Amino acid sequence: MAGYILALDQGTTSSRAILYDDHARPIKMAQQPTTLQTPKAGFVEQDAQQIWQTQISCAHDVINLAGLLATDVSSIAITNQRESIVMWDKQTGKPLAPAIIWQDRRTASYCKTLAAEPASRGESDSGARSKSALSKVAVSDTGLNSSAQHGMAEEVQHLTGLRLDPYFSASKIAWLLENNPKLSVRASRGEIAVGTIDSWLIYKLTGGAHVIDVTNASRTLLFDIHKLAWSEVLCARFSIPMSILPTVLPSDGDFGKTKKGLFAKQIPIQSVLGDQQAALFGQGCLDAGMAKNTYGTGCFMLMNIGKQPKISEHKLLTTIAWQRKTSPTRPDNLSFDQIVQSGMRLLQPPKKEVTYALEGSVFMAGAIIQWLRDNLGMIKTSGEVEDLARQVDSSEEVVLLPAFTGLGAPYWRSDISASITGMSRGTTKAHIARAALEAVAYQTYDVLIAMQKDSPHPLTELRVDGGAANNDLLMQFQADLLDVPVLRPRDTEITAKGAAMLAGLKTGLYDDTTMQASWQVERIFEPSMSADMREQHLSKWQQAIKRSLMTL
User: Fold this and answer.
1) Residue 19: CA atoms inside 13 Å, Cβ hemisphere, count?
2) pTM of the full predicted structure?
């Protein structure tokens, strides 16, 4: 079966489009940067129109670069930055405010106040209390202390698998409604729509479909991952009308076709996955216990935990990895004769099975290197950081604590500030560069330790992807800290591939053999550090965190 999958990959700092052939091989890629705006402390925004325009431009560009026509494209797959939200007018399709990005921390004090409320409060009262708390939100990030999280925080975690944190979508939506009274009135009239980036792109692509995939819905703090539905209780607590939320579909659902005139033909959108779930799928982590780590702007480790959700006891997130159609099976494993005698159908219709994952989110990974480049001017391009770091054999006592937006899993402390400690008169920018790379690996180690405590499956290898996975120095240090092999595939840009693979399986363009053959190891980093040296490194990191906590 011939054909191509057009994968749209909308990230935090760029929009990309990649074409995959009938063997799941990338043919061509087009990419355009997007601009982050920080108008106030704690605010991180983007122009929603720019997100759309760069994404559709990349889609047209990549088809032209490949020398193909839109009629050659069988299906569109979408993967996107998660938690970020867009609010728009249902009639005109125009954004009503800048997109609020996942890194935004403007609602930190609101989340802290809400977390301390009891979980048993009635819906109408809780909505009023939540709105009152939101009206008092300060622009500065006052932090979300984990010790204050009880009651409401526990209810949120039980229903959604997430933590009550500004990182997720709900408080961003609530802030827009509370701080723009006209929007709140229009929301009550059903005149506006809100959604994550996938919802926004699908709306624009189709000319009006207001839908969301289940993996992105599971990152909003409004979705019950057990019932697979929007939670009326949580929508009431955040004072968000359910009428403005999109319809939730499986990851390989039918999301609609592109509107007439956008391409030479109407192309079906047949797979949507949040970026980290797409990477997990693209890495072939289809069995429970398999894990991947994506080194992008942030750092995200996900472990497949199977068909049942397990709420973390060690400050990790439980999230939906994907929901997809299973192959038809014989009912109850009956023989053919037994089926005929019982009058049952030979094959049961396929089910939409849900796979869950544990996740540890690190806020700053590749963004640390960008900071060295853009703020300190130590390097001209991000790729130069490895050569700079190799100028010294050790970071010595230098530790870079990259808490520019607080610390993510397993600490979840937005009140911690970034710092560089352990410097001496002999410290050079090479030491700082090496400490920056080590900080990425240290944070991943912390997540893994928490993950191993939650999961019955021991980690035997870690599959990696993302731009920073191409840094050999970082990957070797990561293997040394984790004491397990780190496997880097030939194609480290695996996020778009994961979404494309799911679309290809849905359309029949790919099968399981295609998926297995498409994942190939480029290099295995075997751990080589002694246990004593590993403990010295980890002790240095842990002491830096303790010092930071003591200053609060």
Assistant:
1) 22
2) 0.84
Q: Where are the beta strands (DSSP E) in 95-179?
A: 99-100
Q: Give dist(CA 74, CA 24) in Å, integer.
A: 13
Q: What is the DSSP letter of 381?
A: S
Q: Which two tokens stand for residue 526?
A: 């075997």
Distance, CA of 63 to chain centre: 27
93-150 pLDDT per residue, tens: 999 999 999 989 999 999 989 988 887 544 444 444 455 555 544 433 333 444 344 5
Q: What are the residue ranges of helices labelled H in 163-223?
A: 169-179, 181-188, 197-206, 214-217
Assign residue 418 a region: left if phi > 0, alpha if psi is -120 to 50, beta otherwise?
beta
Amino acid identity for residue 66 in this structure: A
486: left (phi over 0), alpha (psi -120 to 50) or beta: beta
Residues 6+ apart with CB under 8 A from 459: 289, 291, 303, 448, 451, 452, 482, 484
pLDDT digits (tens, 9 = 90+) for 284-343: 999 888 899 989 888 889 999 999 999 999 989 999 999 998 655 555 556 656 656 666
Whole-angstrom Cα distance, residue 316 to residue 126?
A: 26
443/241 Cα distance (integer angstroms): 37
Contact 252, 350 (CB under 8 A): no
Report how far residue 194's alpha carbon sits from residue 85's, in angstroms, rounded to the nearest whole number: 7
